[in-house]
Structure formats: structure tokens, C-alpha cells
Write a structure and sequence with these properties.
Tetracycline Repressor, domain 2, 10 helices, 2 domains, 60% helix, transcription cis-regulatory region binding, Tet_transcr_reg_TetR-rel_C_sf, DNA-binding transcription factor activity, 0% strand, Arc Repressor Mutant, subunit A, disordered C terminus, elongated
């Protein structure tokens, strides 16, 4: 079994944690969290099981750290994509497109299954990460309403419905032509759903995605609410 090395203790710890997160993410793409053991995570990460306990008290502790790490990265990429987009409707369209593309690369366990297998406190802490995404989308919708681009509506409900549509639906197609057709339909559908006029221009170009090598189909992200 190859050893994870680092020039310093801190670097070694960070590399080990990254390996464990990557391992858990890969496993979550193939089976539910309650079917994954710490031995599975250790074996897939090519580390001893003892190494897992040097970093995490138990499986729930690992999951919480993993979700926090993935959420930070996920939000950073979304924020970068939105950084130079000023028009609220364009921001909404970029947000939707990035969510649909990014979900190929981030592995989140199904929130519905988690409520049956985790402690109430852990489930509550996991769901708290949904607030980050909900706040980001809520701000965009409020800006569009304030500028007269959208009719008044129950923004909290719209956020839930949009996330359910984008994150809880079919996997984003891997084939470039099918993916672009899907993204165009998704863009039109969400704009119509929130009462916006159909856009006369494409979604502004944002992040570069390695779209030709998507990860396996993912479970619904708990951030969808």
C-alpha cells in the first residue's frame, strides 16, 4: 500500500484528508452513504484504517468535514462564475448553468437517505449548508424583482423549486451536443418558471469546465433543500 507523504506534518495531514475526501466522494457516486464503511474509505484511499481515525472520530465526522470542504469549493466556483456578471437575469442564467455543470464534479449524498441513517444533530448541520446556496440564489431573484425583470413572487418557494429542478433532475448529459441541448432547455424552462422574458442572447460565458470527462451520475445534493 503506497504511503501518503508530505514535506511537513501539516502537508501530510492535508494530503491524507484530501485522499480521504476523494475516496468518500468516489464511493458516494456508486452507493448510498449508509452502505459505505470506514474500511471502504481507507481501502479506496490506499491508507490504513487507523489513519482515518487519526483525522475523524467516526463516519459522521468524516461526512461533515467532507461536505464542508466540498461546499467551500462549490461556492467558490459559483462565485467566480458570477463575479463579472451584473444583469440579474444573466446572473440567474449563469447560476443555473454552473449548477448543472458543477454537479457533475461534486459528490453529495442524498438528503432523503441521510435523515434515516444519521443523528438529528448531524442532519441539521448538513442541512445548514443549504443556506449558502439558497441565500445566493435568493439574492439574485430579489435583485431581478427589484429591477422589474421578474414579477413579485414567493422567493423562498422559487428557490426550492429551482434547486429541485436543476439539482434533483436528470444527470447533465456527457455528450457535448446533448448537453448543450439540455442546457438550452433548462435555461428556457427556468426563465419561464420565474416569469422572465426569454433571453435574446446566450448565457454569458463563465468557467471553463472539463465537460468531456464528467463523473458518474450523482445523488441529489442536500443543498437543494
Amino acid at each position: 500500500m503506497p504511503k501518503i507523504t508530505g514535506n511537513t506534518l501539516a502537508e501530510h495531514r492535508e494530503r491524507t484528508r484530501r485522499a480521504l475526501f476523494d475516496s468518500l466522494g468516489q464511493l458516494l457516486a456508486t452507493k448510498p452513504f449508509d452502505k459505505i464503511t470506514l474500511s471502504d474509505v481507507a481501502t479506496n484511499a490506499h491508507v490504513g484504517r487507523t489513519a482515518v481515525y487519526n483525522h475523524f472520530a467516526d463516519k459522521e465526522d468524516l461526512l461533515l468535514a467532507y461536505i464542508e470542504n466540498e461546499t467551500r469549493s462549490y461556492v467558490a466556483r459559483l462565485s467566480q462564475a458570477l463575479e463579472d456578471v451584473q444583469d440579474p437575469l444573466d446572473r440567474l442564467r449563469v447560476y443555473i448553468r454552473e449548477q448543472a455543470l458543477l454537479k457533475q464534479h461534486y459528490h453529495f449524498p442524498s438528503g432523503a437517505r441521510l435523515t434515516d441513517t444519521l443523528s438529528r444533530d448531524t442532519v441539521g448541520r448538513l442541512h445548514s449548508h443549504a443556506d449558502i446556496m439558497e441565500h445566493m440564489l435568493s439574492q439574485i431573484l430579489h435583485e431581478a424583482i427589484d429591477q422589474g425583470q421578474l414579477p413579485n413572487q414567493d422567493v423562498a418557494m422559487s428557490v426550492q423549486l429551482i434547486h429541485a429542478c436543476v439539482l434533483g433532475g436528470r444527470p447533465t448529459p456527457a455528450n457535448p451536443m446533448q448537453r448543450e441541448r439540455y442546457m438550452h432547455s433548462l435555461d428556457s424552462f427556468v426563465l419561464q418558471a420565474v416569469g422572465a422574458q426569454q433571453a435574446a442572447h446566450p448565457v454569458p460565458v463563465s468557467l471553463d469546465h472539463d465537460d468531456d470527462t464528467p463523473t458518474p451520475s450523482l445523488s441529489r445534493c442536500p443543498m437543494a433543500g
